[in-house]
């Protein structure tokens, strides 16, 4: 579980990285900028794991390699934006977020299932009658019922 400080830093990094991709470094990613789905920060705030959502990009792995190759430039642009909030800019590790693709796959799997219809048999009167309670055990010999 992340501490509140980790969550705040992760949120700040997510917002600022999105701004870096869209405003500061659009020339690195012509056409489409990668979306940032999640940022996870280590407890010492030294490493940030950035999960990129590359749904609209044709070849996600190639775009991920391009982002990893320009990670120094991205970190420098990020440092310029957050220098007032953090002392040290965390090292950035980029990963592909495939949760949307996984969700689409699961939708396809669930859509292909054939579920038989439930039986429409009405319950009989025997099933609705209350069951008799078993007799209570006697603990003492002089106990009356």
Brief summary of the model shown:
The chain is α+β, with helices and mostly antiparallel strands and 145 residues long. It is built from five helices and three strands.
Describe the structure.
- Residues 116-145 are annotated as: Disordered.
- GO terms for molecular function: ribosomal small subunit binding.
- The chain is α+β, with helices and mostly antiparallel strands.
- The chain has a domain at 4-97: GMP Synthetase, Chain A, domain 3 (2-Layer Sandwich), CATH 3.30.300.20.
- It is 41% helix and 14% strand.
- The protein contains 5 helices and 3 strands, in the order αββααβαα.
- Strands 1-2-3 form a 3-stranded mixed sheet, covered by helices on one side.
- Helix 1 (4-24) packs across helix 3.
- The radius of gyration is 30 Å and the shape is elongated.
- The two termini are 58 Å apart.
Q: Topology, please?
A:
Blueprint: H1 4-24, E1 35-41, E2 47-53, H2 60-69, H3 71-82, E3 91-96, H4 99-111, H5 125-128
Parallel strand pairs: 2-3
Antiparallel strand pairs: 1-2
Helix pairs in contact: 1-3
Main location: cytoplasm
GO molecular function, one term: ribosomal small subunit binding
GO cellular component, one term: cytosol
């Amino acid at each position: 579980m992340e501490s509140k400080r980790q969550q705040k830093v992760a949120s700040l990094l997510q917002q600022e990285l999105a701004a870096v991709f869209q405003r500061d470094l659009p020339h690195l990613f012509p056409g489409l900028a990668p979306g940032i789905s999640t940022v996870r920060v280590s407890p010492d705030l030294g490493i940030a794991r950035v999960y990129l959502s590359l749904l609209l990009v044709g070849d996600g792995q190639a775009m991920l390699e391009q982002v990893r190759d320009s990670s120094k430039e991205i970190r420098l642009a990020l440092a310029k934006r957050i220098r007032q909030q953090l002392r040290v800019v965390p090292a950035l590790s980029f990963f592909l977020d495939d949760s949307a693709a996984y969700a689409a796959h699961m939708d396809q799997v669930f859509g292909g299932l054939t579920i038989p219809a439930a039986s429409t048999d009405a319950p009989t009167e025997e099933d609705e009658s209350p069951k008799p309670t078993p007799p209570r055990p006697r603990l003492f010999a002089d106990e009356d019922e």
